[in-house]
């Protein structure tokens, strides 16, 4: 997730009625309809995601603590 933050992109919603040509092309009868899309997929257990989220959250809490410490140090120096 943090890797995505390095990119400056923006998601823009486009209503379906503005994409008629694209929709028509994607629904051709000779194209796969997605029935077998998830065949041979490996799913990760939910616990893995909780651990990643917890570890990442802890990382950002440590960053916030460091930022607060730096801000306090700067305030003290400026006040002197």
In short:
With 80 residues, the chain is an all-alpha fold.
The major β-sheet equals: none
| N-to-C CA distance | 41 Å
Give the overall shape, derived from the CA principal axes: elongated
* Helical content class: 40-55%
Strand content: under 5%
Spell the H/E element sequence: HH
Structural class: mainly alpha
Number of helices: 2
How many β-strands, per DSSP? 0
Instruction: List low-confidence stretches.
Output: none
Mean pLDDT: 76
Task: Evaluate the radius of gyration.
Answer: 24 Å
Please tell me about this protein's structure.
This protein is mainly alpha-helical and 80 residues long. It has a domain of 36 residues. The protein contains two helices and no strands. The longest helix has 34 residues. The model has no long low-confidence stretch (mean pLDDT 76).
């Amino acid at each position: 997730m943090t890797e995505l933050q390095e990119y400056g992109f923006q998601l823009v919603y486009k209503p379906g009625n503005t994409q008629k040509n694209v929709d028509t092309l994607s629904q051709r009868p000779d194209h796969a309809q997605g029935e077998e899309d998830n065949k041979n997929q490996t799913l990760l257990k939910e616990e893995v995601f909780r651990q990643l989220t917890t570890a990442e959250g802890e990382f950002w809490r440590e960053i916030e603590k460091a930022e607060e410490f730096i801000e306090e140090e700067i305030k003290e120096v400026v006040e002197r």
